[in-house]
Queue: 4 jobs
Job 1
Amino acid sequence: MSLLEIDKLKVYFPIRKGLLDRAKECVRAVDGVSFSIEAGESVGLVGESGCGKTTLSRAVVQLIKPTSGRIIFEGEDIANLSEAALRVRRRRFQMIFQDPYSSLNPRLTVLDLIGEALDIHSLVSDAAARRERVEGLLKSVGLDPSHAARYPHEFSGGQRQRIGIARALAVEPRLIVCDEPVSALDVSVQAQIINLLKDLQQELGVAYLFVAHDLAVVEHISHRILVMYLGRIVEAGEAKNLCRSPKHPYTQALLSAVPVVDSESKRPRIFLGGDVPSPIHPPSGCPFHPRCPIAEARCKTEVPLLREVEADRAVACHLVT
Ligand code: SF4
């Protein structure tokens, strides 16, 4: 049994218009996505902004209710649980955000920010145990335990992200959804946070759904990668293999924008025209056809299904066999 199984998940946001406030149209942010994550595995989710990856990641941790589909976590469909039942399970799946500062209450010390998570789930018996646990968590994310009395604004961006990670780890989750956790950080700090997440995974066996727009970052931490375009998965496969030989034209374009050090493996840059189309009126047929450099006539009418084209590689393109 997988730790997490997402089955035909859809998240549509109705757009209300007119005097009667009737929903006439909807934004199809996530449009029938299925994938799974094993215990201790890292799955990267990439795509341009507007492709639905943040909505998908928030639906996984139930910050957004899906329109349809199932979210099976540890064998149980959490998409249809009551708030009270969900509260108990929340301990097992946590989220860290792009901007740790906005997710940390500026009026609380680090001791209370992390201690609050312990209190909610009654994980410590008294104040001394609470302090000891918080100090241990700070140490495990590379922060000085004596800084527990400080406030978030006294830390750098990278340190604040470490506090966010410590807070998520406090409740001993089995899955952490990381929503662009390094996008706002300097490149050198990005590497430190990625390495920290990898070390913590080895030590604790926690699984990650790692969301980012930068394939180079995702490749570094992921065992498998999902490439998302306009609410759908268009390519999925083992991380190194997918980055070495991308098959979907969209993945190829994303990868061609990643700078490579080794000149022999340099790929010609593929420029994608325009932006991601509106998910209110997605293009007919293959949603990528208006931007695809190799589109054919049938791409405008036939929707390509995500299908396995070789071992551990699935692609949604008519021309990939
Ligand atoms: Fe391009 Fe057609 Fe493949 Fe879509 S199905 S990615 S438009 S070639």
Job 2
Amino acid sequence: MNVAVLGSGRGSNLQAILESLQQGALTDVRICAVISNNSGAGILEIAKQNSIPSFHISQKQCASDDQLNDRLLSTLSQFGTELVVLAGYMKRLDRRIIERYRDRVLNIHPALLPRHGGEGLYGMHVHEAVIRAGEKESGATVHLVDEEYDHGPIVLQRTVPVADGETPESLATKVLEIEHQLLPEAIQLFAEGRITVNEKTHQVAIQPL
Ligand code: GRF
């Protein structure tokens, strides 16, 4: 299965996916392309080091949003993309892309959605909100992407305890470790064709092996 990864940052989730592939924990998957809106993003570096086609595609280079989305769509289809993975992609995906890849776009969020998600809740802001809310546990969520931020049906979730005196930084480290497990697991479920989405309830079901 051809998987395209979109990200804006350092790319540790892409690194985790590549390590899962090397260890054989993730199979029948090929990272066909990596796209970032940030030319200096570490995720592009990781792609280059692994000889994965990588692209800097951003609003700044394009005359319009339509042109940006044309570029994204043509790049995704050029590599036969079957699953789009957002790993720290800080831009909202346009409706055109979500429709083209309906129920085939995954996002990883560093909290237990539906709590502590939505516009502005990214990176450290998420962990600060979790601690401020006095949560006793946090974790990571992999979900299908729809037209709203951090809103689509949940595919996988895993929790970590929030310790007394936890700082946003220490929580971020614990949650990131979970993300690095959860995202490859979710991609493997797609590769095995085990993810179905109920037409009416739009809930995700994971079929047994
Ligand atoms: C991760 O914490 C992810 O949950 C969030 O953005 C971050 C990406 O980190 N959406 P990285 O670039 O994969 O290291």
Job 3
Amino acid sequence: MSKGFEKYIPFVPLKMEHRSWPDKQISHPPVWCSVDLRDGNQALVDPMNLQEKLEYFHTLVDIGIKEIEIGFPSASETEYEICRELIEGGHIPDDVTIQVLVQARPHLIQKTFEAIRGAKHVILHFYNSTSTLQRKVVFHMDMDGITKIATDAAKLIYELSQPVIAEGMDLRYEYSPESFMGTEMDYAVEICQAVLEDLHATPEKRVILNLPTTVENCMPNYFADELEYFISKLPSRDCAIISLHPHNDRGEGVATAEMGLLAGAERVEATLFGNGERTGNVDIVTLALNMHTQGVDSGLDFSHINRIREMYERCTKMKVGERQPYAGELVFTAFSGSHQDAINKGSQYMQESGSGKWEIPYLPIDPADVGRQYEPIIRINSQSGKGGAAFVMQHSFGFDLPKAMHPEFGHIVQVETDRVGTELQPQRIYELFKENYIDAAKPYELVRHAFAEFTDEEGHSHVTFSGTLRHKETVFQVQGSGNGPIDAFFNAIHGQKMDHFTFVDYKEHAIKQGSDSQAVAYIHLQDENGKDWFGVGMSHNINLAPLRGILSAINRAVTAKD
Ligand code: KIV
Ligand code: ZN
């Protein structure tokens, strides 16, 4: 039995007669706002310096984020200077709006106005705590007192902004009732409506109402209920842009954002890889790529996720976990054999169907969409199945092994993984393939040969093979005819010691390695005991590749028996 749970007060969900959000779908992206440089930055052991913040800012711009909270300029000289450098240094593209955060306190608001002078597009974001708990244990204030803090700030902001707007700044307002999720919903509506009125919000000049789960304290469906209720009760709904700001204390930040969007939110504040206070803010990468995999254009560019991850780790000195959705080192790696087989089959199915639709089990996203490679999708270790090695051969080296050969080659690879005790890299898998099949050129060697070919009046082809073979020290001549090179060769070796094999199947395709194009032939033979033997031959000559393949299969069988 666990200890300590009795002391917690469970979240009390709203009583909803009707809710419509569960029947909705996300069909378009929200307005994205990055709070990396503020909420994310304030949660770092070593907050970013100017250079790091600038580099981070430019990455956010490149991703396509148009609203970026750059800091808390009234909080410290460093924050103020960074804000000034962004504006004066000409770092902000014309289509990007910077957002600055300030507490609902007059002297901080004044300082914030100084910090933003000269900027073209600004969102002035102010907040105060509204939750039952914060009112009780932190502020010792009733609802009216808390409302006054917000409305006084709103009035001051409106007043200070008039000359700035007259000078040409595109200045918008955002208000956050901090700890919204723990606030009585009717009171949240009341305080937000009062703020909208004091900011003179209209449908043409809408104010952003940012409704944070400052501390995620309930399941995302309860939050969505709160949101739907809030929106339905807000008198000036058409004068507000409803924004989300999920934190991730229960690990449900993404679900909170997604259900919040279903419940009517239009904007999301988030950070790359979910950096932020405690367990972080909601992860914008996951949110956007979740939409992408549902066929919705997120409007954001994560096509070079590794580059973004590298910048993030360098600037924040945080690590992106190996299993972080879409971005983690291991998320495109299948260790399990059955997963590898299914991925292999899915990839073949997609090629054959030609529908262009992504239908690969265990890979919810095409790794190429985030600039990642197919090669590391499958790692070969002792847990891998028969299809994994064949998949690597196909995707990393272009060898399309026949299905029947997969178990045999898979076994060769498995023996090697057991021997070395670690996973095998694609190059080692190729080496095993080469050593076992292509290089199986002894004891029987083809020294020289010639084909003669003619087609009769009925269109039948007749091929004669004449060649010199060597078996250890013995050199011997063979000749035979057939309806094609393979048949002719088989007939030629009839009567020799190597003739106890039956031909089962063969497959050939072209393969390009660098600028060099060759034919590769896979040969399937059976010995007198019914045992399968595979061989592989390569040559620039499409007639020679299968002969080498046959000798490869025979040599492997003979060597194994010896
Ligand atoms: O989490 C939060 O509530 C905040 C506010 C300042 C918006 O970061
Ligand atoms: Zn926050």
Job 4
Amino acid sequence: MTTSSLNGESIVFFNGELVAERDAGIPIRDRGFIYGDAVFDATRTFNGKTFRLREHINRLYNSLRYLRIDPGMTPDEMERWSLAVVNHNYPLLPAGQDMWVMQRISRGVETTEPGSVMRPTVLIESHAIPFARRASLYREGVSVVTPSVPRIPPRFVSPRAKTHNYLNLVMGDLEVQDTDPNAWAVLLDESGNLTEGRGSNIFLVKNGKVATPQGRFVLEGITRGVVMELAAGLDLPMEETDLDLFDAYTADEAFLTSTSLCICPISQVNGARVGDGSVPGPITRQLMAAFSDLAGMDYVGQYLAHLPE
Ligand code: PLP
């Protein structure tokens, strides 16, 4: 099918071809659905251009190798099909919008037929980033809460792989949002060190030094890596280290990073105001500005433009 026959309709790449999004469906016995036996990654666009797509695809292939799934496609092909989905779907978005493009690969459809071979299910889809829902975070900052549920230890399932099994992080969110629907969960590990949230890494700033939990204990966010590069470019000392609630409560500044949030200031942790309450603090502000320069657009302005009048 050519994409021109799908003018005006969102498309996805599904098992080898581009099809209308409404025509793609995951079979009921797909192992991604029945066991969470799948991996994914998500890149965002800035003004329709993907950012660090190849790095996301490299991470996707590491997740695939960790789960021993062969997608039957090279990283180059994955990149090309991802761009085909973006190039078709981006013009369908309203002005001022941008989107995620996500690759999702499961081990395939469970079968009981003797001798049958399982083939991976490969889906590449895109959807709009919810700017309006998140815009106020850039004015007021994120309220972070650490739930009682700990992050699963890395030797059980490595957090460095981005798999479809997010239940541990979802449980953290549920607990936190039952108390405060607007709070974002960041899970502690079993020793009480900060780890990450369902979709974000955390950073603290203290006495001019930027710090984030070690890469072995979290998904090594692409944005986290970008922040490290930006910190180096701005001559800001930066370390990966254990950080606990003492560090969080005594930090001067704190922020979350993720593909869609980019860098978003944190205003409080478990109800304790971060630093002097400036949102963002001076170093976070510097990093946010450097991020916008790198992305080639004012991403904060894009969020704030979605605030209600
Ligand atoms: N941690 C988890 C568990 C995630 O799912 C994500 C999102 O992908 C992140 C951190 C942030 O990573 P990135 O900056 O690549 O979006």
